[in-house]
Specification:
alpha+beta; Sulfite Oxidase, Chain A, domain 2; Immunoglobulin-like; five-stranded mixed β-sheet; elongated; binds the ligand Nc1nc2c(c(=O)[nH]1)N[C@H]1C(S)=C(S)[C@@H](COP(=O)(O)O)O[C@H]1N2; binds molybdenum atom; molybdopterin cofactor binding; OxRdtase_Mopterin-bd_sf; Sulfite oxidase
Length: about 425
């Protein structure tokens, strides 16, 4: 045991401290893992590596790539075992293997707060939202009036944190180190934002929105977050003011009694504890706007460098991504397992997913999975398939989605930026057969 730990720590430390030397030592000069190094890596991983010959030179196995810190889990009434990302403010990520439901139940819904969670409203029906700024008639509407005056719609909508996938960046970017689990696809009921905006009467000058909620920043100085978007997104049919989640009142943690849902764009636009929307002639300047917040470089910048974000652009539609939900990272399967039914979800911001491919031989061959169409626009898509395993041993399931414009998840997170947006590299899950 102690021997095995030594090997594991040394491989990890070597790669962290001196990747070039690690490569030379572990892989040899010709770049093929062999002999004693191969045996040592196999021992570290807990099984032989049947596809060792197709392992790209210098690749750190997924089983070792996760760092040594054991994750902490959320323990909260009404919530599943989510991975803690931080206690103040409270942030928690859904493990990929808990994202198997087509409609994400409330207990498995990731948590992202920028400030403190407000106390529940004494009388939710009396909760009011305001619509003002560049409109002909500013409105104040109670939850009851919203329900009574406008058509109610029910849609499955994915809502993903702008920083989802951030942990894929090297060097580390600032913020919660999300894996792929800051994503949800619940069934939301509410009214279309555009119907409410039309009722207020948009002026020609109304080009942008600004969103406000009832929570305050942990410093108690000002709002937790206040973002806004182009009017075109506000007028899309799937942008809604939600009053029910999965047929129930919205849980307090997720923005009760009224929240916005702006599917496909950074989750930060989906204002929780929603109180007010302003219409503006110029982009909104609330907390979380401008600089490097929710913005990406137009041209690549040097990873790790400082930048004011002067020529960054606002992040809009989120990039294509996939999760594997049938097998957790590190799963052990009985000896002799030669075929595996696998499945997961995939989504692509405002676009759809046209393909999901899986490799079990370190990317040498890829197999097309079956991808279901979304039940409605902006819902995630179920993918399923079967993979063959030639023998017992250590395997990695690599999975990568392609969006409807032909863009694939890249091999490594691209376009590094200080606050870590847009990382959507191919994911790798380690499994051990036997
Ligand atoms: N009022 C308010 N709305 C908010 C936030 C917040 O901190 N306060 N966080 C935003 C961010 S960054 C995301 S990703 C989503 C997360 O929603 P959830 O906690 O329901 O998953 O809510 C958004 N809306
Ligand atoms: Mo977010």
């Amino acid at each position: 045991m102690s021997n095995r730990r030594t090997v594991e720590r040394s491989v990890q430390e070597l790669y962290r401290d001196d990747p070039e030397r690690a490569d030379a030592l572990v892989w040899g000069r010709r770049g093929t893992l062999k002999g004693a190094a191969l045996a040592a890596m196999g021992a570290t991983l807990g099984g032989s590596i049947p596809f060792a010959r197709s392992m790209p030179s210098g690749l750190l196995p997924a089983a070792l790539a996760q760092g040594s810190d054991a994750p902490q889990f959320l323990q909260m009434e009404g919530k599943a075992r989510l991975i803690m990302q931080g206690a103040r403010p409270l942030n928690a990520e859904t493990p990929e293997s808990l994202l198997d439901d087509d409609v994400t139940p409330a207990d498995k819904f990731f948590i992202r707060n920028n400030g403190s969670v407000p106390e529940p409203a004494a009388d939710p029906r009396a909760w009011k939202i305001r619509v003002d700024g560049e409109v002909n008639t500013p409105l104040e509407l109670s939850l009851g009036e919203l329900e009574g005056r406008f058509e109610l719609v029910t849609r499955r909508l994915q809502m993903e944190c702008g920083g989802n996938g951030r942990s894929g960046f090297t060097p580390q970017a600032a913020g919660n180190q999300w894996g792929n689990g800051a994503i949800s696809c619940a069934e939301w009921t509410g009214v279309r934002l555009r119907d409410v905006l039309r009722a207020a009467g948009l002026k020609d000058s109304a080009k942008f929105t600004g969103h406000h909620g009832a929570d305050s920043h942990l410093s108690a100085q000002g709002p937790a977050i206040s973002r806004g978007m182009r009017i075109e997104k506000a007028m899309e049919e799937d942008t809604i003011i939600a009053i029910r989640m999965n047929g129930q009142p919205i849980p307090q943690m997720h923005g009760a009694p009224v929240r916005m849902i702006v599917p496909g764009w950074p989750g930060s636009l989906s204002q929780k504890w929603f109180t007010r929307i302003e219409l503006k002639a110029e982009p909104h300047r609330g907390r979380g706007m401008g600089g490097t917040s929710y913005r990406e470089p137009v041209r690549p910048i040097v990873p790790g460098s400082r930048n004011t974000g002067a020529d960054f652009v606002d992040m809009e539609s989120m990039p294509v991504r996939s999760v594997l939900t049938s097998h957790a990272h590190g799963a052990r399967l009985p000896a002799g397992t030669r075929g595996l039914d696998i499945r997961g979800q995939a989504w692509a911001g405002d676009l759809t997913v046209s393909a999901v491919h899986v490799s079990v031989d370190f990317g040498q061959s890829w197999h097309a999975m079956t991808v279901n169409p979304p039940p409605n626009h902006h819902a995630w898509q179920r993918w399923t398939g079967r993979i063959a395993l030639p023998s017992d041993g250590y395997f990695e399931i690599w999975y990568r989605a392609t969006d409807s414009r032909g863009r694939m998840q890249p091999h490594a997170a691209a376009n590094w930026n200080p606050q870590g947006y847009g990382a959507n590299p191919i994911s790798r899950v380690a499994i051990l057969v036997g």
